[in-house]
Amino acid sequence: MLVTAAVILALPLFLPNPFYYDVVIRIGMNAIMVVGLNLLIGYAGQISLGHAGFLALGAYASGILTGRYGWPPIAAMAAGMAGVGILAYVLARPILKLKGHYLAMATLGMGIIIFIVLTQESQWTGGPDGMSVPAFSLLGRELSGEKNWYWVTGALLMLALWLALNVIDSPVGRALRALHGSEVAAQVAGVDTSHFKVLVFVLSAVIASATGSLMAHYIGFITPTVSSFFHSIELVTMVVVGGMASIFGSVVGAAILTMLPQLLSGFEGFELVAFGAILMLTMIFMPRGLVPTLAAKLRRA
Amino acid sequence: MALLEVRDLDMVFGGVHAVQNLSFSVRPGTIHSVIGPNGAGKTTLFNMITGLYKPTRGAIYLGGDAVTAKPPHELARKGMSRTFQNLQICFNMSALDNVMVGSHLRLNQRLMPAMLRLPKLKKADSACREQAAELMKFVGVGQYVKADASQMPYGALKRLEIARALAAKPKLLLLDEPAAGLNNTETKEIDELIQKVAHSGVTVVLVEHDMKLVMGISDHILVLDYGKKLAEGTAEEIRRNPDVIVAYLGGA
After folding, report:
1. What ipTM goes with this model?
2. Largest CB tally within 10 Å, which of A30, A129, A165, B14?
């Protein structure tokens, strides 16, 4: 936690121009999203291949409510979070009865449906061409400039990390890890496993929605590809590469996979191949992910 | 009054009648054993009592309340706890955290206090952590307090499961073959542990193959064969029962 805070505080000293700020801000936003997703996938052991859908719904809630109806951005963001929370709750009850591959298929379907809706309902969303989103403002003051966004994102990431670490180190966190470890053991110990599965699913969806709102305001333009299957997979990859059940792994995973397209831009068109290769190599050589593997190595040394 | 009462219980899996028309009751403060050859329906019976299986017919009462086919977490709330024949340990957690899962119901399980690290919850949680460490000592795995569950040997994991079950402060503890896979010394230690647990006021229902263990510690024994009750009584009565002798040693 302190290390992350120090990195966030010290990083501006080394960022030469707005382009680097932009990359780091995107890393920070992805990290917030991935911390939430890691609670679901890494800690509670429930896969979701559709979380980009929730991210996109948050982004579009902000875009539509601020752009078309003139809502204050913070209210639009809250409405998005509430709406996504309710949707996730309704979906989670039936979906999380499924396990393993079947759960993966169901969440995949959910993400695809959201993608189709965002693409088709063009009178609201602008269809495949996307829509522009007004700048974020609070109490009449507009948030602009990479530096300001940097500090806001950094603060929110720290908040997300703090909340997530608190949850994990609590009876709720133990219940989540226990239902991952042995669902039947958790049940006989008194854990209402379906309640906790729904809880963590909704929590991660709401975090995704909040991140989506932030991204929409920051980038200023959204298209339905935000909710694409590929984006969902990218987010899961961040969880896996960084380390399942590792909160700081989420930050590392987000950093690596956000920077990767920049680093791989030389391989025009082979980005996807590189993503796939990295996921495979991680699974083969570091099945627990970067941070847990390295942490174990350090402890042994 | 009986703490646990089973009435006319039936369980059918497809064509297999795993438990047939079974009734018995367990008095509080006793050690009650269920024995029988492999496939006699002992674990099926346990799974019905603890809410993992829904009985085809019949009723189960806990402390006088009908609890038939209630989900396991509700039964836990009513004071039922169990261990498993094939270990159900969370290997993604530390040994101590495994035990602490058992005290889940005694702590605030809401998200908001957890997220905000409210001092009251934190205090209750650390008190619980100390109790869990005490329990690990009580069952004889105190040396693993700082270990991960995945680092522990089989015999210790069996005890860890008992510690987790006890962390719930149960009235009724069901132990499914606690001595399976253990050597003689370990079995003797488990024997002592079960008696220690029973002396602390927990009613114990035991499924076990080790006859010496069962005969030595049980107040009451129920013998199952092909899902039916073959005999019931004290260790002495069971030892002399001709039906039991035939079932175990074969008839002439």
Report:
1. 0.92
2. A30
